[in-house]
Design goal:
- Helix content is 14%, strand content 53%.
- It is mainly beta.
């Protein structure tokens, strides 16, 4: 579904306006974003069985591997994630793979409250690799 690539691409651009939301580990680059699922286009949410609500967050992860001098290619991975809020409440949620042509996304959904600040801990193991790559970041959600 081409709309999925356009939407998640736009969300990455929106999220990276002030800072690159990506980390590099050798030949791998991991892009990440967390946002209110209310931002999803209704057709995209419905097509991929994603909840669309101000009170639900979405974690989006993509993994790329360097291909030659200037290129990057999406690669499959095993992704697990969790988040902790300022009250030390743990939010564990499954990540699932979505494919759109050559793009591969890992998506998880979790509950959020207004002004909630979450510390995310994501582990990514690219296909064929043994060692996981860790991504840690903080995101605040405003829903009112």
């Amino acid at each position: 579904m081409k709309l999925l690539s356009i939407l998640f691409g736009a969300l990455f651009l929106f999220g990276t306006a002030n800072a690159e939301q990506a980390v590099e580990y050798g030949d791998y680059r991991i892009h990440y974003s967390a946002f209110s699922s209310h931002m999803l286009h209704p057709d995209v949410a419905h097509a991929h069985r994603l909840p669309r609500s101000r009170y639900r967050g979405i974690l989006n992860i993509t993994v790329q591997k360097k291909q030659g001098e200037n290129g990057w290619e999406a690669v499959p991975a095993r992704v697990s994630a969790r988040a902790v809020n300022s009250a030390q409440q743990l939010k564990q949620f499954p990540m699932r793979e979505l494919r759109d042509g050559r793009s591969v996304y890992y998506i998880g959904s979790f509950p959020v409250a207004n002004s909630e600040l979450l510390d995310f801990d994501v582990q990514v193991t690219a296909l064929g690799e043994r060692e996981p790559m860790d991504v840690r970041f903080r995101q605040q959600f405003f829903i009112d």
